[in-house]
Q: What sequence folds into this?
């Protein structure tokens, strides 16, 4: 395990590394997976058919497993949603992959890049397949 100073330093380094690798900046906007989806009739019908629980008054989609969520921008456009949940395992990965498949979104998992709580969280990165990171 890391000592407090090492953890704080690792957080800064990992966050900077992630941002640089993908050429993104953190959005100050509301963290919502729906913002990755195209605004079309087909998408609205798909989301309605899945009967996903809405997590706020704006009809946002926030996965039940999400924790420490952020939206990421490139050139002013939302390109990714990240979450850094605790206690991650293969069963949760399969659940998230299936959830993303329903929404036609791409997902990646990294156990080594987490900046929220290095060593204790996993970075789940979701993006639209037409706009990969």
A:
């Amino acid at each position: 395990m890391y000592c407090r100073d090492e953890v704080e330093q690792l957080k800064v380094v990992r966050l900077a590394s992630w941002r640089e690798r993908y050429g993104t900046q953190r959005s100050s906007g509301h963290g919502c997976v729906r913002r990755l989806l195209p605004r079309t009739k087909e998408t609205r019908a798909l989301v309605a058919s899945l009967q996903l629980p809405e997590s706020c008054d704006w009809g946002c989609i926030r996965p039940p497993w999400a924790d420490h969520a952020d939206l990421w921008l490139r050139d002013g456009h939302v390109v990714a949603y990240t979450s850094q949940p605790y206690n991650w395992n293969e069963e949760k990965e399969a659940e998230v992959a299936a959830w993303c498949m329903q929404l036609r979104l791409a997902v990646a998992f990294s156990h080594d890049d987490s900046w929220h709580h290095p060593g204790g969280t996993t970075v789940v990165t979701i993006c639209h397949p037409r706009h990969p990171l």
In short: Residues 4-127 form one domain. The chain has a mean pLDDT of 83.
